[in-house]
Amino acid sequence: MSDPLSILRTSATGTRTAVRSEEQVCMLIDTSTCIGCKACEVACVEWNDLHVEPEGGQRVLHSYQTMPDMTPAFWNLIRFNEVPVDQNRRPTTEAAGVSLMMLMRKDMCLHCAEPGCLIACPAEGAIVQWSNGIVDFQQEHCIGCGYCMTGCPFHVPKLDARTGRVYKCTMCIDRVSHGLGPACVKACPTGCLEFGTKSEMLARAERRVERLREEGFAQAGIYDPQGVGGTGVIYVLHHADQPELYGGLPRAPSITAAVRLWKGPLKWLGSGSLWGALGVAILHYLTVGPRRVAGRPGERQVLRYRTSERLLHWTIALSFLYLLTTGLGLWSPHLAFLLRVIGGGQVARAWHPVIGLMFACCVLLQLLRWRGDLRLSGSDWIWLRRLRDHVAGRHENLPPSGRFNAGQKLLFLIQCVLAAVLLSTGVPIWFPQAFAQSVRQVALLIHAAAGVLAMLSLLVHVYMAVLVTRGALGAMIEGTVSEAWAREHHAAWAEELLGPPSPP
Amino acid sequence: MTNGWTDIRNADVVLVMGGNPAENHPCGFKWVLEAKKQRRAKLVCVDPRFNRTAAVSDLFVQIRSGTDIAFLGGLIRYAIENRRYHEEYVRLHTNALLLLAPGSELDANGLFAGFDGTRYDRSLWRYDIEAGMARRADSLDDPRCVFQHLRRHFSRYTPQVVADICGCSPQDFLGAAEVITSTGTADRAGTILYALGWTQHSCSVQIIRAAAILQLLLGNIGRPGGGLNALRGHANIQGGTDHGVAFHALPGYLQMPRAEDTSLAAYLSRTTPRALLPTSLNTWQHTPRFFVSLLKAFYGPAARPDNDFAYDLLPKIDGNYSWVYLFDRMYAGQIRGLLAFGMNPVAGGPNSDKILAALSRLDWLVVAEAFETETAAFWKVVREAPATEVFLLPAAIFAEKDGSFTNSARWVQWKHRAADPPGEARPDQEILARIFLAVRALYEAEGGAFPDPIVQLSWPYSDPQRPSLEEVAREINGRDLASGKQLSGFTELRADGSTACGNWIYCGSFTEAGNLMDRRDGRDPSGLGRYEGWAWSWPMNRRVLYNRASADAQGRPWDPTRPGIAWDGARWRGDVPDTQADAPPDALGAFIMLPEGLARLWAPDFADGPFPEHYEAAEHPVPNLLHPQRSINPVALILQSDRDRLGTADEYDIVATTFRLTEHFHYWTKHIAPTTALQPEFFIEVPEELARERGIAHADRVRVRTARGAIQGRALVTRRIRAMRVGGRIVYQIGIPIHWGFTGRAGASREGLGPLANLLTATVADPNSFTPEYKTFLCRLEKLS
To answer: Beta strand B777-783 with B654-659: parallel, antiparallel or unpaired?
Structure first.
């Protein structure tokens, strides 16, 4: 191997950084000759200097399996699967079984050619795929978001709550890059583990499969799932037609549609709509322009927003700004610089959910506070039907508005709904270990989509409140507006508050 | 092992029974998988539990614990009745044709001739002797010959009887028999691997005898890919056995003098056998050479021809000092002190409760260990604080000292220290040397009743406080006293006191050419896994014992593709021949250690009969189907103290067996974090059917109780042990791993004495090897609320 430490691709960079030129390394696991001695487990712990503490109680399993699943400090787990079989050693039901087979599978990172973890990872450089195919986590860049756990079809990466980093098998990259095999292979006493190039391992696996078929295992085969582009760890299985018997090995693993949509089309759609919206805003500004209300000296000032309302608004605004910045930074590699500006990915990972929770609470409070003013009345529906007049600046055609016009009401209600969606989808992302992977995958997709919509709604709001409706920003800062402003924008509200307009 | 680990790869059939090499010998087990992969060998596993060996076997038969002789007896009968035996081999290399005097038949009561109520008079079991030589039949059909005795003896072991006793189905048995006996031809070879699942019964030696008979019938002894292979339970237990760690043997399996051997001549005349056939090389005829050389090694210049080579200084045994009797005496208050080196009797002995009581009656106890073992900590857990003064001496572990390991394959492999012992820890030899020198100084200063055995003991090491193990190894190999040169083989030993040798079977391991145990030549010119340049194998670097039997009457290998040795017209070629290297094929019998020069299908050497017979364990769930009035081995050793209680099937309805796990090494690795993490908590394997019947859910806490004691733990409900139908009723077996106790890191189970498996086991032992019956006993199982 000439230079195994050149990088093939890196997480969150969007581009491939090298062209694959070297032969992929590969570990062959012949499950038919594994005796479950766990030498590989110990070798892994020893070589990688992992610290496992014996725990009683939790692990009296139905078998001799060390623990239910891999952990951040246990990257190599032999799964013991006891399967009832019939006379011909075909897996069968409990009732029909005349004997047992103990299907032992070494669970570990499979080092996919198309790694779901890497594709999902938002932290630049946290996951790299070396040119020899090894997929390697770089914990110093890891932000602990757990997206890799959501992206991996094999449930391999494990988040360490203590360090806030994710860990998994490195295929002993430190050994491999010096021409040695992984520690587990070195320790395996039966030779059921072998290490070499992918083509070589496939050839050996073929020979074993042939032998197993001769021995009567007609369904023997190689597990090298193409859904992830093939793997750097391949299995010889007695029952390749039923890989799920081997401790839940997925039959046809792939990067799921949710992850693909989230990492592909949604990004294009999101940035497209963002730029589109900006363009529309500029066009609108140039053609329609701002809406000014000429003030008169000595005019009465009307209280439009109480201090508490303004405080809530600005809390929401600032927190949303933070959420948007961090969210964008986590979402797109091109915007990853935003994370650096505000303290780095790990800080963003830690604070985004907390701020998000605060944001959602504030939105809820504001909703409660404004609930009376947000009710859509009959005239609102007329207003909405004449939205085009509003956009075009023909305000005279619109019915008088209350404290908020129908557009404002609708926009805020939409934002409330989005906040609710963002919160509910944010929780599974916040606590990845507490939710099923499929839930997390959908949550991530919806969260990102909702984020895009929230960003668009913000754009409309800011444009309208700052550039178009002159005086609105001042109102949210100082709390008051002029009588004229009030009567121009919210005639019904002004009349209710101030009485009919005095004749000029 | 008659063969060796690396030889297993030459087998066509591997029978694993009474052992679980995938779990307990995973490194050696690679050769089984190698045979499967390269030779398409079939692996047959017969065990009470579906274990990790069974998991990779081609055929698994579950049998009831303690019924191995029934199963093997069935195989012997199957081989004979279906003419699956290797007839030419049997005629040539076994005693099948020798004629027997009457007395070797089993009567209807399950007894051989000569039983006096406690033991057999073995002199009744004998060949038909004429002029000092055994008479030979012309044909295997002669009803008086060994072969016909064998056939008649095992004719009762029909497939149905086997199935009824063992709890398997006749079909299961026949399926296994078909595969196992397929090696009874010249072109096929099969091996048997066994371990403590055979040796820890009250008829354990006869189980191994039965296996030897089967292998001899199939022509598998002495051949590459064959053999009867004991898988030892420690890295160096073979070395311990070779060097006379048992009370009744001196180094090199020389017999221990008894009280009645009042002179050297008397001892030698009792222990030196006379040939029974003219073709017998009878290696033990040289006992005087081996023994006198050993005395010279022990006593140096003090061993002179005029004083019987200091024979009088050697202790003479006047009784049984094996483990169970030792602790029985201790329990009776007859022993005042104990040095425990690399031994943890509280955890390792049977009936731990009795052992704790026995230790409490000592004046002093010295434990040399790397960890605080149950034995070192026993005084913390016994109910009444004992008066015993306990010393725990920190000892180096194996990696902190050099020396040799003798593996199961008899390979003596030199090892080099990897690290220095920490703190005040010292290697065992230094601890022993310093104790010895202090005792010797006391004897020299104060005299005493009999100082000579201590004062005159040879202690020729350059640093007496710290004997170098290389010096000890040289001493074991032996030297010519006149020239001072290291000997190159035991044929150079002399009975006149001109040679000294610490262990005749190790003679040749450290010659003038250097330390042959330290050789690391990984080449395998034969392609048969002999690796003759790797370390050194006793005896004489021979890799396969009895390899003369790998060739036919003309000296041609039975299977030319797997030659052990072959006669080239002038010499034997191949492995180091287990015969005289230049003796023509027809000159000598193949089994040179036996006075008849032939392997023994019939053997009068054992306390419990000339042929193996199925007897139930001391605690058994059903009477012996073959002779219900004589269920257990009539000469089994059953101790009788007030703590030695046996239970009956009425009170204790479940069969229990103990076992080891691959994750742990005895009671040691529970002190180490990574291995403890692999198996942190004690558990009890309970068959699903039994759990359902008793309302036990997985991981429920249960208590196992025997007539001796009780332990608690979580139930591991499993399909790997199934209910069996035996003697018309359902019999359940449970499995109890042995590795836990009350010390170590496995925290969850530390109340009281912890789950010490041996609190349950009985002080019952085999009458030949004196090994306790750990593997089969009766218990009750209760769910704890």
So the answer is: antiparallel
